[in-house]
Amino acid sequence: MATKKTSTDSGQQPENDKTQKLQSFTNDAEGQYMTTNTGLKINDDQNSLKAGDRGASLLEDFILREKITHFDHERIPERVVHARGSAAHGVFKVYDSLSAVTKAQFLLDPSIETPVFVRFSTVAGSRGSTDLARDVRGFAVRFYTQEGNFDLVGNNMPVFFIQDAIKFPDLIHAVKPEPDNEIPQAASAHDTFWDFISLMPESAHMIMWVMSDRALPRSYRMMEGFGVHTFRFVNKEGVASFVKFHWKPILGVHSVAWDEAQIISGKDPDFHRRDLWDAIESGAFPEWELGVQIIPEEDEFKYDFDLLDSTKLIPEELVPVQRIGKMTLNRNPDNFFAETEQVAYHLGNIVPGIDFTNDPLLQGRLFSYTDTQLLRLGGPNFHEIPINRPVVGVHNNQRDGHMRQTINKGKVSYSPNSLGANDPAQAKESEGGFVSYPERIDAKKIRARSKSFFDHFSQARLFFNSQSDPEKNHIVDALSFELGKVKTVAIRERMLGILSLIDKNLAAEVAFALRIDVPQDPALPLNHGMPADADPADYDSVMIEGTLTSSDALSMANTPKDTIETRKIAFLTADGVDGKSLNTVKSALIAEGAIVEIIAPRLGYVITEDDEQIPVDHSYLTAASVLYDAVYVPGGTNSVATVEAEADAIHFLNQAFKHCKAIAADAQAIQVLEATYFVKKLPADFSEENVLKEGLVVSDDASELAAKFVLAIEQHRFWDREKPRKIPA
Ligand code: HDE
């Protein structure tokens, strides 16, 4: 019998402790015979067992029954939120010991490489929905540490919509497709979402983030991540401090335009999933630095917001983010279902040295994650699914249940016991046993919200004030779009009331687009989440100014713009293209880590002026400008004439201009640019200063063009092109 392999060979991508352990569960059919699930070799997988070759199928056909039964049961419920996601394996390393603040071992030793499995997701859409929805992105990281799994289940925005977990089902019911007609999919632009939000002033800050370009990442690899809640670090001496977790992407934080996002949703709804997969396959491993903001216990009440309130962030100006380590994603999963779908994160998975706080959102989440996995993964043994197993041993007296895999030996499944030497034994704290931080609590049992949670607007204002002008315009446009899709005028008005409490100009601009008036004196508490017996006066929002008026870290305009690594550049070509220019610019871009794709009227190859055949990646039929970061038109008399006459190519350029991308052309190809509408916008000269301002490069020297083009692509986008606010294409 042919037996070439026993387990999956996962190519060139690096192994770590966890991926090696996963190997024993992987299966590779290469060189193997087909069998039933009981190992019987199958002779005919094409025909069912019948009474004669035209006869009825026979119930006896156990092979048919097994195959169809398994198929019938292939689906499991999708996650109730974050259903759409993509994941990757990687490693994390701390830069220096953090022993001063935590005893978590994986944060103590720079020589320890901790395996991670990271899943990115959208929140509202179903499993098959577009990656480019305007939405929050999940950023869930599992560290497989030597002390057990630590899950940092975060988002790409540092705050949340609500303050108390009891409102989560309401929030999600409001944003999901409306229950009567299941419309719209993966979108918040509808009545129920804005109805709820307009009655929940506490969501004002998060709404600013979700209406900003942060909700439209260029790539998962170009997003920040946040633990959102305040957690606790505890050191060996038992001294605790508060901590906020951040992930800072090495490639900077970048987004696409809303118009572009909507087009990508049609052209390539798997845009982010493909981007992550391709980057890792090509060896361009995505990287983030882990950052922490540490607040000593005694500073708990130092700020004009409450550290336990998840609708607030701690401005980096008040507590700087210390970068403490780096995470690298270097390996794609072998199987989407087994790994990405079955991974079961839980922010209750912690290790000694890390602990919770009383944030009421965090506390509710501690219940929800295990509960939801029980339904989704079908029983209490989901921790035995390979991707969920820790890299260290699991020993306890939990037994049995659906699909139990572990074969526990012996008679003893209780503690204390004498028949099994009282094992498994409890671990002392000094032996690594987890001991909860002994926080003092002396309180009445009440359902209530602290007054310190009632300032809903100052950080929403801080966020808005911190944005660049183009970013502010995008927020105005996003709100005008979303509220424009809301049919109930009263909801639009109520939302304008909320916006006016954040920023009067913001409210006025959105009101202008909707052609309605901003309510002069928006009533608060706006009938929002009050207990039945409450006095409305007790629920009034607190209006404070906040100590900061602006924070640089909140604007993407301030993100590092120093690399074109992994950026995708389209070359618009046709037969007769100038091969020398093409190759010079291509080599220069590739040397900087970019990806070049050749687009031509037909697939196969294009022929250069010098009769060189250059492979074509896409025809104008399958390519789309929204799938690239920048575009270049090489010269060559025949090529230029063909490209100029190709309507799809001109649309490609017009759209790239509209989406504020870098565009370059050989001087010989200027006639192509002359066929675009933005020919009028070409600057008088292409000095470096103008290139950095306009993002347009024309030159008759390919090397010079390439150097300037790189500078332009590094800028990501030239949002100032939108100054007249409306661009055709
Ligand atoms: Fe989640 N969330 N969440 N969430 N969450 C889930 O757990 C929940 C919240 C986040 O890639 C569910 O396994 C409640 C904040 C991510 O598999 C569920 C509340 C943050 C993921 C759940 C929140 C998150 C989830 C659904 C309010 C950022 C995807 C499937 C108290 C800090 C993880 C699942 C993955 C998933 C409950 C709010 C992040 C239902 C009750 C705040 C990244 O248990």
From TrEMBL:
<dbReference type="Pfam" id="PF00199">
    <property type="entry name" value="Catalase"/>
</dbReference>
<keyword id="KW-0575">Peroxidase</keyword>
<feature type="region of interest" description="Disordered">
    <location>
        <begin position="1"/>
        <end position="30"/>
    </location>
</feature>
<keyword id="KW-0408">Iron</keyword>
<feature type="region of interest" description="Disordered">
    <location>
        <begin position="411"/>
        <end position="431"/>
    </location>
</feature>
<dbReference type="InterPro" id="IPR020835">
    <property type="entry name" value="Catalase_sf"/>
</dbReference>
<keyword id="KW-0560">Oxidoreductase</keyword>
<comment type="function">
    <text>Decomposes hydrogen peroxide into water and oxygen; serves to protect cells from the toxic effects of hydrogen peroxide.</text>
</comment>
<keyword id="KW-0376">Hydrogen peroxide</keyword>
<keyword id="KW-0479">Metal-binding</keyword>
<dbReference type="GO" id="GO:0004096">
    <property type="term" value="F:catalase activity"/>
</dbReference>
<dbReference type="Pfam" id="PF18011">
    <property type="entry name" value="Catalase_C"/>
</dbReference>
<dbReference type="InterPro" id="IPR024708">
    <property type="entry name" value="Catalase_AS"/>
</dbReference>
<protein>
    <recommendedName>
        <fullName>Catalase</fullName>
        <ecNumber>1.11.1.6</ecNumber>
    </recommendedName>
</protein>
<dbReference type="Pfam" id="PF06628">
    <property type="entry name" value="Catalase-rel"/>
</dbReference>
<keyword id="KW-0349">Heme</keyword>
<dbReference type="InterPro" id="IPR010582">
    <property type="entry name" value="Catalase_immune_responsive"/>
</dbReference>
<dbReference type="InterPro" id="IPR029062">
    <property type="entry name" value="Class_I_gatase-like"/>
</dbReference>
<dbReference type="InterPro" id="IPR041399">
    <property type="entry name" value="Catalase_large_C"/>
</dbReference>
<dbReference type="InterPro" id="IPR002226">
    <property type="entry name" value="Catalase_haem_BS"/>
</dbReference>
<dbReference type="InterPro" id="IPR018028">
    <property type="entry name" value="Catalase"/>
</dbReference>
<feature type="compositionally biased region" description="Polar residues">
    <location>
        <begin position="21"/>
        <end position="30"/>
    </location>
</feature>
<dbReference type="InterPro" id="IPR043156">
    <property type="entry name" value="Catalase_clade2_helical"/>
</dbReference>
<feature type="compositionally biased region" description="Polar residues">
    <location>
        <begin position="1"/>
        <end position="14"/>
    </location>
</feature>
<dbReference type="InterPro" id="IPR024712">
    <property type="entry name" value="Catalase_clade2"/>
</dbReference>
<dbReference type="InterPro" id="IPR011614">
    <property type="entry name" value="Catalase_core"/>
</dbReference>
<comment type="similarity">
    <text>Belongs to the catalase family. HPII subfamily.</text>
</comment>
<feature type="domain" description="Catalase core">
    <location>
        <begin position="35"/>
        <end position="423"/>
    </location>
</feature>
